[in-house]
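Sanity check

After download, print the first record. It should look like this:
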Amino acid sequence: MDKDQMNHIINESVITKEYDKDRRIRPKHTASYITLIYIVIGSLWILLSDRILSALVQNEEIYRQIQLFKGWFYVFATGVIFYRIIYRAFLLYRKTMDSLVSSYEELNAIYEEMVAMNEELDRQRTELGVSEERYRLVTEGVTDGIWDWDIVNDVYYVSDKWKQDFGYESQEIGSTIFAWEQLYYPGDWERCRNELEQYFERKTGVYEAIYRRRNKANEYRWILSRGKGVWDQEEHPVRMAGSHTDITEKKEMEDKLEKLAYFDSLSLLPNRAFFEQEVSQKLSMKQKVCIVNVDVDDMKHINDLYGQGTGDVYLQYISKVMSDVFSCPDMVAHISGDQFAILHVMEEKDDFHSKLDLLMLNIRRPWKTNGDILYVSASMGIAVYPEHGTDYSTLMQNAEIAMFYKKENKKDGYVFFEKKMYEDAMKLSQMNAQLKRAIAAKEFLLYYQPQYDLKSGKLSGLEALIRWNHPKDGFIPPMEFIPIAEKAGSIIPITLWVLQTGIETKRKWEMDGLLSVKMAVNLSGHVLVNDAVVDQICEIIESMNIKPGELEIEVTETAVMLDLEKAKNNLLKLRSYGITIAMDDFGTGYSSLTYLHSLPLDILKMDREFVKSIEKKDEDSLICKTVIDLAHNLNLEVVAEGIETIEQKDFLIANHCDVGQGYYFSKPVPEDVLYDLMKK
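Expected C-alpha cells:
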C-alpha cells in the first residue's frame, strides 16, 4: 500500500467520522432551513406588523414614523439573526476542521507506526530465514548433536546429522525419550535419570551426564550430554534443550593415560599409586588385609653382569610368578625398580603362609640366561592390619622396615614386622640426623695408627681413623656409626672430610720438618661404586698436588663386591693418580682368590682375626703363611693388622711379612700425640 492510497482512506474515514459525529453539517439542508425561516419570519412580520400597527395607530403621521422605525428594526433584527446563524455555522466549521486536522495527524502517526511495523516484520522475516539457514548449517556442520525435549508432550527432537552419525535414518528412531532409552548401555540410563532429577529439583545449575549409547553397528560410544530447561509458573519443567557430544576418543585417551598413571609399563602390574588406592579402599571397609613388601636380592648384580635388558626380563618373570601365586582378590604391584608389593586379603581359612612358601620356592628356581644359570632370591617384610597399622602409610612403612631387616639379617625369606624393628629403624634415623649435625658441628676428629716396616723397624705409614666425639655420649667407635652412615648416605661427606683433613695434617707435618710417610684412608663400598664421589676424590688429590706413593686407599672385599665392575674401574681411576690401593680385612669376605688377580691392588692387609691366633692355632699360622706367600707371588705388599705381642711380630717377620700394625707398636692416637711421637 502506497502513501496516496493511505491518505485517501484516511480522508474518507475522517469525513465519514465527522459527518456521523454531527449531522447538522449538511449544506443544502442547512441553507434551505435558514431561507425557509427567513421567509416565514419576514412574511409574518410584514403581514402581522402592518395589521397590528393599523389597528393600534390612527394618526397617519405617527403611523408613517412607526412604519419607518419598524423597517429599521426589521433590518437590525434580521442582521443580528443572520450574524448568529453565520457565526454558529463558521464556529461549527472551524471545530470540524480542527477535529479533521487532529484526526489526520493521529492517523498519520498510526500510519507511520504501521509502516515501521511492516518494515520490522520484513526484517524479522529476513532474519528468521537467516537464522533458520544458520541453524540448518550448524546442525549439519557440527559434530555435536542438537536435541530439544518437549517434556509436557514427551516429544524428543534430535538433529538428523546426529542420527546419521550413529548409522540411523532420520525416521528410524521415534521422537520420544523411551525410543532413545533403548540405546543406552545397561545401567547408564539410571545414572542419567538421576542427573535429570537432580537438575529438575534445581540442585545443579546445568544438566550434564556421561553415558554410553549404541550405534547401528552395535558398538557403544561414549556421550557427553548437556542441557538447560524451562520451568512454568508452578516450577514444573516444561522444556529442555542442549547438545550431545561424542567423547569416545577422549575417554579412550583418558583410559590410556590412567593406565600410564596407574600401571607399570615394564611389568604391566599396578604401580605404587594404584596400590595405595586399593589398600586404602580395603582399609576403609575394615577388611582384614596385610601388605608384603618384596625386594629382589642382588638385582643390581644381575644388571651389571648381564645387562639391563636381562634384568628387565627377569623382573617380568618375577611379576608373573607373583601374580600367579597371589591372584584376585589379592593384588601384586610393582613399586619401583626391584621392589614389589602384595596386598593379601586374609580369610577365615587363610593359606597365607603356604602362598608365601610357594612364592619363595618359585623365585628360587634356577633361571637360565645366555647359557648361565642364576639363583636369585627375595627378601620380604609383612605388616598386618590392624596389628601393625591402621592406614596405608603406616602399614607400608612397617612392611618396608621388616623387609630391610630381613635383607640385613640373612637375605632370602620373609619376616613379619615387630615393634623392635621399628625401634631399630628409628634409632638408625636419629643416628643419621645426629651424623649430619656432627659434620656441621665439627664433632669428628682423626686418630692415627702408625705402621712399621717389620724388617727395619722404621715408621712407614699412618692409617687415618675417624672418631666421633659426641657432646653427650662421648667417644663413639666407628663400628657403631659407620654402618649407619653407609645406610643413610652420610658416609660420603664423612669420607671426603677424612680424606681432606688427613692430607692437610700430613702437609702441616711436612712443613714442620717431620718425616714424610704414606697416609692410608679407608674408602666405603658405597663411595667406591659412586662415580661422582670418586671424581670428587680425584679432584681433591689433584688440587692438593698429591705425589705418587703419598696416599693409600683401603677398601674391603665387601665394598668391592657391591659392584665388582664399577669398583674395578674406579680403583683404576684412583691408581692413575698415583694412589696406592690396599685390600683391607683380606680373608673375611667373598671368594677372595677368585677376584684377587683381576683387581688393581698394591697391598694386601691381612685381617686381625688370623693374626691374633697364630701362636695358638696351627690353622691360623698356616693361613698367615699362605696369604703372605700368595701376596708376594702376586707382587703385593703384605700388611698384618692387630699385632699385640712380640711373638706375633716375630712370627710375621720370620714369614717375611712386610709391614705390621697394632697395639704392640701403638694404638690409634690423636694428632698432637702422634706429632710428639714423630718428633722423637
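If your output differs, re-run the checksum step. Summary of this record's structure: The longest strand covers residues 220-231.
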